Amino acid sequence: MHDYLILFLVVLGVNILPAFGPPTWSVLVFLRLNLNVPTWALVLVGAVAAATGRYLLAKSFWLLRRRLSDKTRKNLEAAKDALQRKKRNTFVALALFAMSPIPSAQLFEAAGLTGVRLLPFTAVFFAGRLVSYSIYAYTAERIRETSIGEALQGGFRNPWVIALQVLLIVALVFLARIDWAKVLAGRPKG
Questions:
Q1: Could you tell me the sign of the dihedral formed by the alpha carbons of 60, 154, 123, 170, in that order?
Q2: Which residues, 6+ apart, have CB-to-CB distance to 77 below 8 Å?
Q3: I want to staple 180 with a disulfide (CB 3.0 to 4.6 A). Which of 38, 71, 78, 131 is the partner?
Q4: Burial per residue of 65-104, b for 16 or more beta-carbon CB atoms within 10 angstroms, e otherwise
Q5: For residue 35, how many other CB atoms are within 10 A of its CB?
Q6: Cα(152)–Cα(113) distance, integer angstroms
Q7: pTM given for the model
Q8: Nearest to 172, CA basis, from 106, 108, 79
Q9: Residue 107 CA from chain centroid, whole number
Q10: What is the pLDDT of residues 15-30, one digit of tens each?
Q11: More confident residue, 150 or 77
Q12: Where are the domains of the chain?
């Protein structure tokens, strides 16, 4: 039970970080090699902890909305309306996101700022992470041949990963500054 608690808390902590956290898959691989937890349990507990952490991150940014100017809140509300206008497009975008290795922190921050419904958003994330974490966890034995430290530190030393994190943070700031009502005014509804 102790190993399960460590697993949950470590993965939860990594997923509450707003930026620059190590990739969850690398943490899971490390924990797979160092804890006495069956792979199926590692995947399940890891996905639950990751989804919970991202939900809490989005919720904290939802609370942050109150500190934003009225103009910024209106812009974000217009972005939310545009995003939720076509359910099918939203689902396809979420499904692609859920399976991608792209950092998800900023997407959850944006979801919190825009005020989209977080439970369905988080459920899609959870489902995608079950699949992707399974792939990583079941191949973790091959990692024994390499340095796990390199895998965990890669995100902190790789300039492309750092640049992507900074770019996503800048994009999040610009998302809030766009006058979405004006930008989307000319688009047909439907």
A1: positive
A2: 114, 115, 180
A3: 78
A4: beeeeeebbebbebbbebbeeeeeebeeebeeebeeeebb
A5: 16
A6: 29
A7: 0.71
A8: 106
A9: 6
A10: 999 888 888 888 888 8
A11: 77
A12: 2-184
DSSP 54-65: HHHHHHHHHHHG
State how far the Cα of 120 lies from the Cα of 101, in Å rounded to an integer. Answer: 20
Residue 112: which of 67, 166, 157 has the closest Cα?
67
Note every long-range contact of 63-71, with CB atoms under 8 Å and residues 24 or more positions apart, other chains counting.
63/112, 64/112, 64/113, 65/112, 65/113, 65/115, 68/113, 68/176, 71/179
Structure tokens at 93: 């975008």
41: amino acid identity, one letter? A
Handedness of CA 155, 159, 161, 162 (dihedral sign): positive
Residues 7 and 176: their CA atoms lie apart, in Å, by 35
